[in-house]
Each structure stands twice: as structure tokens, then as C-alpha cells.
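Curious: explain these C-alpha cells?
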Amino acid sequence: MERYGSDAEEGDQRIPLIRRGREDGVQKAPACCSSRYALAVLSSYGFFVVYSLRVNLSVAMVDMLNSTHQSTANHSGAECPGHADPAVRKHNHTASVYNWDSETQGWILSSFFYGYIVTQVPGGYLAGRFGPKWLMGLGILGTVIFTLITPVAADLGAGYLIAVRVLEGIGEGVTFPAMYTMWAAWAPPLERSRLLTISYIGAQLGTVISLPVSGEIIYYLDWTYVFYIFGAVGLVWFILWALLIFDSPNTHPRISEEERLYITSSLKNELSTSASNIPWRAIVTSTPLLAIVVAHFSYNWTFYTLLTLLPTYMNDILGFSIQQNGFLSALPYMGCAVFAVLSGQIADYLRETCKYRTVVVRKAFSLIGMIGPAVFLVAAGFIGCNYILAVTFLTISSSLGGVSASGFNINHLDIAPSYAGILLGITNTFATIPGMVGPVIARALTQQKTFEEWQIVFYIAAAINLFGAIFYTVFGRGTVQSWAVHTSYIHAD
């Protein structure tokens, strides 16, 4: 007869208990040189490529425009005194420039998300149906190819460039659902936080590195090389991915028998035996999934607000030019990456060694990773022209957000590992909406470029974050849901 955990939440009493420490009595396989950690590192490289290709256009756009009317050094409209610019260096400017108005620029920059949102749920379904390795590999490869032809599309016209960006979004849209499906077969329950935070740190590093590096590429070469160089980096990743990665431990030809047995044994009571029969009704009516949706949407509102508008805030309010704040704009994402990895180590330590229930760990890390950023984001709007304190508060806000990587962000694998890709596709669909509408609302509220207007923007983001944290704390769950497993249960007389 199956044993069931005493910490199962209401409605989940029929979920098998996975033993702590040595899962199902199988000795834990070493992490060093293991296939599962190799997957984490190479998938991190993949997400580095994904985010590099996502944000490089925003940097290149500055040099793609006919800027005879621009004066980036002029900060007369800033609330705070401008900072002395370094000596302006004349750089190579051999590539074409375009006379796109602000509306056209907005469409070009936002078009990625219109493709990205389309393939979230299909990505999760296709990964479960045909395997995540090639779906993720071909999705990123497609994005790489369209990145390489971006200069040609721009020369043909704004409409062609918009179409290319939509297609890039379609390709990248399958990556996160596919990777969650992959981890459902590769990540032992008590190592999920470690493995997934290593995997997804690549997204933060892609942002941190591509922002300043793109600027240097443009200076020494021209804007077209931003797409050529990062596209080449993506091609190298695809070759490594195709040769070294496999869908599951059972299909990996070079994995040790010890590691294969450890992974498959630890997951045997969590994965559905009939994954092709997807319980759509149960999924869309699941309250624990709704809790993740609300938390993911709320967190991304703040994340995308900072991602798209932090350079604008530093320029319009604090008086830093984009050239000056390249490192400062990347600093919050460096902090976020560090905190994400640390939180993964701590979360798994609390679950495995200290025996804390999964749901307690997920909720605690979500509260820290959502309320903390809200507090410091609001505080940043009330410190006036104290530049050091402003950058410090914004960095702390984004860094604390990294803690949520071990909270709601991994919870898909806790409640339904067999359908984690589909669940991630659902939550990421809703979580993409803030990237489409949040910055538009923020720009509409900051037309006069005053502290008071930005305080409203920060208040809105903080309130949404606070609501998401509370909702997830009330309705979030940490055990596999009954609809996510299809096994035969034997009942005692």
C-alpha cells in the first residue's frame, strides 16, 4: 500500500510521500560532473542567448535612428542636476540609419511580445508530446536565424523588422515551457531549487552582459554587428545542445547508472503514467495554479517596469545619460542573478536538511521576493536626488526579486511535474501581459517627467506586487495535485 505524507494539503491526501534525504531509499548521486548539472549549465547558456537576443535591439535602436535632432547629453529636463559627461568619442557609424517616428519605434520594440505570448501554452503541449530537447533547440535556433537577418529586414522597412521581431518572439516563446518539461524528467524534488536557479540565472546574465557589451560593439564596429555577434554565440549554443543534451535520463547514453537510478527513483511517484491524456479541465480550474498565475503576473509587472524604464528614469529624473548609466542599469540584474542562485541553495537546504515543508519554503521565498522589491521600489521614489541611495534602493529591489526564483517560479514542478511545461505556458502567457501594457501605462503617467509622476508608477507596481504575494500565500500549494498523477492506489480494508 502506498504511504501518504502527513503534510499533504487538503484535497491532496492521496499523493504519495517522497522520502526525505535519500529519496525512495536511493543514495543521492554526486553533483560534480553529473549530467543533471551539465544540463543546468548548458540550459543557463541557452537562456543567456535568449535574453541577449531579446534586449539587444533596445540598445542598437539608439544608433539605428537618424539622430541629428537628438541631444542625449542634454539633461535640462531632468528633475536632478545633470552629471558631467565623459569626453564624447567619435565612433564608427557606417551602417544605415532610419527616420522612424516614436510610434513606429514603440511598435518595433513591443512586437517581440506579440509573438512571445502566442507560443507559451502550445510550447508546453508540444514539449510533452514530442520532447523538449528539440523544441527548445529549434526555438532558439529560429530566433538566432531571425536575429542574423535583422539588419536586412531593417533596410527593407519597419514592417519587415516588426515581422522579424514577432517571429523571434514566437521562437523564444517555447523555451521556458520546454525547459520546465525537461526539468520534470531531470530534477529530483529536493534539488529543484538549485538546478532551476542555475538554469535560469542565464536570463539575468544575458541582460547584464548584453546591455554594456552591445554598446561597445556599436562603438567599435556598428549596430549591425550586435546582431551578428550575438547570433553567432547562439549558433555555438545550438551545436552544443544538439550534441550533449537528451530528453530524459533514460535516453542519455553517457549518464552514470547511479545518477540515472537516483533521478528516476526520486520521480517515480510524481510523474503521470499517462501524460498524453492531459486533464485540461482540472488544470484550468486549479486554485494552486491560479495562485501561481497571479504571483507571476504581479512579479513581472515590477520586473518589466524596471527592465524597460530604468534607463529612462536615470536619464529623465536622476540626470544620467545612457552612456553614463550602462553599468548602473545592469547592476540590479547582477544582484538579481546572485540572489536567485543563493536562494536556490538555501531553499533546498531548508527542505532537505531542516525538513521544512515545500509549501512553507515556496511561500516564504515568494513573500520576500515580492514584498521586498515593492518596499524598496516605493522608497526609491522618495529620496530625491540622492543618486547613490536611488541606485542602491533600485538594486536592492531587483536583487530581492531574485529570491522569488525559489518561490512561486518553481511551484509548477511541485504541483504537477508531468504537466509543468503546460502550466508554465499558462502562467507565462498572463505574465507576458505586463511587458506589453505596463511600460505603456508608465510612459503615459510620466509625460511631465517629475518625481511625483514616477512615485505613482512605483506605487502601482508595488501594490500589484503586494496583492500577488498575499494571494499566493493564501492559495498556493506545495504537493503534487491529485489530477496530476494517474497511478493505481491500493486501499486497506
In short: The chain has a mean pLDDT of 84. DSSP finds 18 helices and no strands in the chain. Residues 35-64 form the longest helix (30 residues).
